[in-house]
Amino acid sequence: MPRHIVCLTFDHDHLSGFIARGMTSPTAISRGEYDVVVIPRLVALMERYGIKGTFFTPGHTIDSTPQAVLPYVEAGHELAHHGWTHRLPVTLSREEEEEEIVRGNESIRRISGRSARGYRSPAWDLSPHSIELLLKHGIRYDSSMMGHDYDCYFARQGDVAELMKPFARGRETPLLEMPISWSLDDFPHFEYMRLPNGSVQQGLMNAGNVLDNFVDDFTYMTRVQPDFGILTYTFHPHVIGRGHRMMMLERLIQRLIEGGAVFMTMEQAMGEWLARNQGARKAAE
């Protein structure tokens, strides 16, 4: 029987993304705080359709505003790791990156009672140390890379990328990669940003046009992988939470249900993928 899994994921950055960019004015802070309004609406929307999602939440969000995190933790959604600050791992030393992982897990355990199984890098930019550190600290899957669209794979460690030499691939690790895409992320489509360096991210695209793109990606999965596939969408509460976008999100859910989608958390989808690929799992280990 065909099995086409959809994961609705939310990067609950709250204030951390703005602070990491040096944007700490009252207006910037208020943009992050808008998610306090949105989170209960998102939880209610998914409850109406019987959907469990995955929230990638920085420790900074958890420790700064636990009341914004508790609604989805108490509703049984997956709480996954998104660093403690919202700094890119590739900009940190190995020691700083490990501190982010440890501190973020401590925040997750305090509010949920369990450690994170999954991780997503802030801005999706891993460092040369990330995979080693994630495995060291018990992370089972990552969702930061883009090497596939509808399938998972095992992350490699030790790639060598030099300008004047052929690319040398490292060895596969037991860390399962559950890939994402900027094209399936609400932030570049919708979020208008004037950045500290003077550049502008335009955003503000028509939600109906983005909806068509999002639905077509699912439809294409059912064609090119007719038996089994996993598709991951990424949303940010303070972005998707505006009225016309919330209506787009509900229409997306409705159309995916009509297309036969099975909604799962990332951890659940990981379990199903591993069960179907036991041989690959043993080889990676």
Give the helix/strand layout.
Elements: E1 3-11, H1 16-20, H2 26-33, H3 35-48, E2 54-57, H4 59-64, H5 66-74, E3 78-81, H6 94-112, E4 118-119, H7 130-136, E5 141-142, E6 153-157, E7 171-177, H8 186-190, E8 193-194, E9 200-201, H9 207-224, E10 228-235, H10 237-240, H11 243-258, E11 262-263, H12 266-276, H13 278-284
Parallel strand pairs: 1-2, 1-10, 1-11, 2-3, 4-5, 5-7
Antiparallel strand pairs: 6-7, 8-9
Could you characterize what this model shows?
It contains 13 helices and 11 strands. The chain is an alpha/beta fold and 285 residues long. It has a single domain (3-284), classed as Glycoside hydrolase/deacetylase (TIM Barrel, Alpha-Beta Barrel). Strands 1, 2, 3, 10 and 11 form a 5-stranded parallel sheet that branches. A hairpin with a 5-residue loop joins strand 8 and strand 9 (200-201).
| C-alpha-based Rg, rounded | 18 Å
Number of strands: 11
* Tally of contiguous helical segments: 13
Mean pLDDT: 95
Number of domains as seen in the coordinates: 1
Task: Label this structure with key terms.
four-stranded mixed beta sheet; Glyco_hydro/deAcase_b/a-brl; single chain; 285 residues; five-stranded parallel beta sheet; TIM Barrel; globular; 11 strands; alpha/beta; 45% helix
Brief rundown of the structure:
This protein has 285 residues and is α/β, with parallel strands linked by helices.
